[in-house]
Amino acid sequence: MDNTFHIKPCSALASEVADEIRAINPNAFVAIRGEMFDGKEGIYGVFELHPDDHPSRYLWRYTLAKDWLADYEENAK
User: What is the domain count for the chain?
Assistant: First the structure.
C-alpha cells in the first residue's frame, strides 16, 4: 500500500520544503512528496523532473515549482 502523498502548499509540511523548492528552476516540474511514518506525516522528498521529460508519464503529481511557491506564499498570508 502506498503511503506517500503530494504535499500541498497549505500543508503544515509545506514550510519544511519551501526553501528547497525556491532553489529549483521556477519553470521545472516538481513532485513534492510526503510519507506517513508511524502514523505521522513526514517529508519524503522533492523530485525535479528533467526538462526533456513530461509529468504525464508518471503517477505522482507534478506541478511547476513557481506555481507551488505562489500558492504557498498566498497561503502564508
Answer: 1
